[in-house]
Model the fold of this input.
Amino acid sequence: QAFPAELLRRAYAAWDGREVTDDGALVEMVGGSVLMVEGSATNLKVTRPEDLAVAEVLLDLYGPVRGVQGV
Done:
């Protein structure tokens, strides 16, 4: 999931404590939209230690993605 930072800040600022499942649900609560876009098998979510190991292998194979904030 990815959202414009300002939209996500606004959603968290407006959060009333109701249970939400993820950032997408929170964004929808403030009128934002959640869309699905085509992705890539190499764009993975790192949640567990084994996910990090896979990400490190991909980084070794392909190198960092240039132009991406934080890289």
